Amino acid sequence: MAAGTELTPTSYINHHLTHLPATIGDGGFMTLHVDTVVTSLLLGIIGFGLLRWIVAGATSGVPNKRQAFVEMMFDFIDEQVKGVFHGDRHKFVAPLALCVFVWVFLMNSMDFLPVDIMAKLYELMGLHNWRSVPTADVNTTFALALSVWGLMIYFNFAVKGFGGFMHEIFCTPFGSNPLLWIFNLLFNLVELISKPLSHALRLYGNIYAGEIIFLLLGMWAATGLAGTVFGAILGAGWAIFHILIVALQAFIFMMLTAVYMAMAHEGH
Q1: Residue 212: domain span
Q2: What integer best gives the mean pLDDT of the chain?
Q3: Which of 79, 150, 164, 238 has the greatest number of C-beta atoms within 10 Å?
């Protein structure tokens, strides 16, 4: 917060929820927030760089703890994809699911960083507003969801052909009678539009709500010693519970990605 500014609950929350002024775009839905983009890229480089380092040093003998953990994660994600995708999942879908899960999990995990301590560190670097949690930015979750949606549309055309996909759009689920084409089209348009909406907003809503709760608990510290102790206890409890939310939301986003890819490869 700027010096001399009175700290109120509104100003405290607004300060932590304000993006870096530097943006790419017109400030609307299509805006890229620089802090979100930079944090996301750094997490991607660090996360997948570590995985690359561990995989490069893998041996066929007894694995060390790092290799064993990565192998367990690979096997877990591959089994989940295997349950919903019945084609050659190792060609594209399983690597995509792994990428989605790891990246989303890392971005969600930024919510565990103490907001006030991170704000002080950012201010030392001359950054008075910096959002640490990329998935608490709706532009991030929509970018991810629309990327998956675009891949789903591509594979619908690639696997089924233009005619096959159009037949699916106009002739299912109510039948191929020309009188039903408009109803089939409207039904399928609602389904197509709702997929990226639900995919993006589910992740964003859960992580944003978690961030708000951390901020509300952090405000207890401003009420004195008792508030600091009470807030710390509640914050620790919420952090433990939030671990489940962070992992679960990454898992759900990954599973929906695999399901949408499976639907694109299979006909009605």
Answers
A1: 33-43+63-265
A2: 87
A3: 238
